[in-house]
């Protein structure tokens, strides 16, 4: 899971509920649309807070930036029905969010699972988008080792969905022994985020990560500027696989040094610079 480097919003940002034709979605927003507007979608077990360190530098670059909790994810409400969290349903949510922004073409960024959702939204209707960035997100299902871990998590949630604290405790008990300890504030936030996320959302999206087919050829046929951005190491999708996906897409490619699966949290300044540079190039095209 992504671990935000900080939790406090910059002074220029605000948190609110974005009203759309498909319900309300919790967002963090910063900046004015001098050069454009961007919508950032978090990954599996993640939330809008994963992008908090990107808000200020992207706003300073002239972009209105919104990071959003998806349906049933942390502070966005959602039903207790697994079908509500199919990728196509989540893609429709993204399209509704863009319509609610009323901002013209929007730069869409999807981190990890968010990349699969972003791809589904673009394939459904590319018209509202100025560009697509797949951030640490691959061409199809996650790597086999991660599939095995995710299957265990999905099975635990299916059996214990009414005991989210118990599942959380079991997950943390399996953390690597040599992992750096989180601060008390971050530990409390991660637990709260887990407990506030609808278990059916985690079950359905976990299955999507295990089973998603390769849709790169479909996406390559969409005439939209694309960027594939990752760290130097990735446990969900190997970096060479993302290199190949970028080639197949005809996409720009950026590898962020000092980052792994979450460049947005692990090296936000470089990540923000790469995003702004890519979006600027789309404006000049």
Structure in words:
One of its GO terms (molecular function) is triacylglycerol lipase activity. One of its GO terms (biological process) is glycerolipid catabolic process. There is one protein chain. This protein has helices at residues 52-60, 87-101, 113-124, 144-160, 164-173, 184-196, 199-211, 216-220, 239-249, 263-266, 268-284, and strands at residues 14-20, 23-30, 36-41, 63-68, 106-111, 129-135, 226-231, 252-256. By secondary structure, it is of the alpha/beta class. It has one domain (14-284): Rossmann fold (3-Layer(aba) Sandwich). The protein has an eight-stranded mixed sheet with strand order 1-2-4-3-5-6-7-8, sandwiched between helices. The longest helix has 17 residues, at 144-160. The relative contact order is 0.16. The model has no long low-confidence stretch (mean pLDDT 96).
- Kindly state the number of beta strands: 8
> Helix count, per DSSP?
11
Order of helices and strands: EEEHEHEHEHHHHHEHEHH
Query: From the helix content, strand content and strand pairing, which structural class follows?
Result: alpha/beta
Number of domains: 1
Principal-axes geometry comes out as globular
- Look at the structure and name the CATH superfamily: Alpha/Beta hydrolase fold, catalytic domain
Give the amount of beta strand, in percent: 15-25%
Strand order of the largest sheet: 1-2-4-3-5-6-7-8
Helix content: 40-55%
Q: Give me the CATH architecture, please.
A: 3-Layer(aba) Sandwich
CATH class: Alpha Beta
User: What name does CATH use for the topology?
Assistant: Rossmann fold
Overall mean confidence score, pLDDT: 96
What's the story with the biggest beta sheet? Answer: 8 strands, mixed
Tell me the Rg in angstroms: 17 Å
Distance between the termini: 35 Å
Give the uncertain stretches in residue-range form.
Answer: none
């Amino acid at each position: 899971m992504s671990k935000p480097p900080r939790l406090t919003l910059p002074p220029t940002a605000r948190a609110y509920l974005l009203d759309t034709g498909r319900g309300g979605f919790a967002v963090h927003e910063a900046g004015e649309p001098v050069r454009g507007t961007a919508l950032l979608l978090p990954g599996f077990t993640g939330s809008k807070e994963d992008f908090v360190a990107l808000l200020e530098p992207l706003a300073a670059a002239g972009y209105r930036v919104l990071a959003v909790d998806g349906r049933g994810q942390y502070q966005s409400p959602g039903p207790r029905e697994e079908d509500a969290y199919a990728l196509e349903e989540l893609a429709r949510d993204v399209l509704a969010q863009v319509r609610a922004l009323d901002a013209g073409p929007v730069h869409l960024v999807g981190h990890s699972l968010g990349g699969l959702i972003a791809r589904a939204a673009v394939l459904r209707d590319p018209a509202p988008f100025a560009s697509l960035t797949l951030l640490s997100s691959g061409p199809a299902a996650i790597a086999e080792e991660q599939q095995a871990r995710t299957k265990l998590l999905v099975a635990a949630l299916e059996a214990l969905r009414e005991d989210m604290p118990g599942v959380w405790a079991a997950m943390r008990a399996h953390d690597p022994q040599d992992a750096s300890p989180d601060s008390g504030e971050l530990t409390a936030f991660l637990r709260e985020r887990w407990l506030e996320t609808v278990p059916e959302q985690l079950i359905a999206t976990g299955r999507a990560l295990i089973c998603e087919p390769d849709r790169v050829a479909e996406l390559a046929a969409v005439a939209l500027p694309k960027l594939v951005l990752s760290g130097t190491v990735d446990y969900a999708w190997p970096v060479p696989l993302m290199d190949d996906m970028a080639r197949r897409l005809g996409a720009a490619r950026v590898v962020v040094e000092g980052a792994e699966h979450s460049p947005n949290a692990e090296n936000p300044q470089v990540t923000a610079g790469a995003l702004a540079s890519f979006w600027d190039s789309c404006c000049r095209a």
